[in-house]
Amino acid sequence: MVELLEEVLVEGAKEWEHVLVGFFVGKKILFRSLQSVLNKKWSAVGKFSIHTAENGIFIFKCESELVRNWILDNGPWDVWGVHLALRLWERDLPPIRSGFTKIPVWVRLMNIPMEYWTPKGLSHLASVLGTPLYMDLATESK
Predict the structure, then answer these.
(1) Are both 21 and 6 inside the same structural domain?
(2) What residue stretches are annotated with the DUF4283 domain (predicted)?
(3) Residue 56 contacts by C-beta under 8 Å, 6 or more apart in sequence?
(4) What residues does 79 pair with on adjacent strands?
(5) 80 with 33: CB under 8 angstroms?
(6) From 93's CA, which of 56, 61, 67, 137 has a CA 20 to 30 Å away?
């Protein structure tokens, strides 16, 4: 009986293996607005569908691992100026906000002395907030 249950769970998980779970930080976004904006931003890469869960959680079901990873790798994303926090779907973890342990955000550093305008210097300053991941092209080219 336990083996059968595990088989059912494994089979069911295959349907959701290319899913992202997300929510908007600080504000609610209407479903139609979300769908319209993200279709413009993501649809060139591949197909995806958006589903709602409870408490402002959205499920983004991608047609492939490639699409899912592109979305994750090319963020952070926002809709109407509101940050969309995303994470990978995990089996046995309900789609709730507590599954989010990290949220990538863009940070604008202002009035930085010129001697810090190196990748190492800016990375050092940004590390106060967390682990720096990327630098935009304009900043990188000084």
Answers:
(1) yes
(2) 13-92
(3) 23, 24, 28
(4) 82
(5) yes
(6) 67
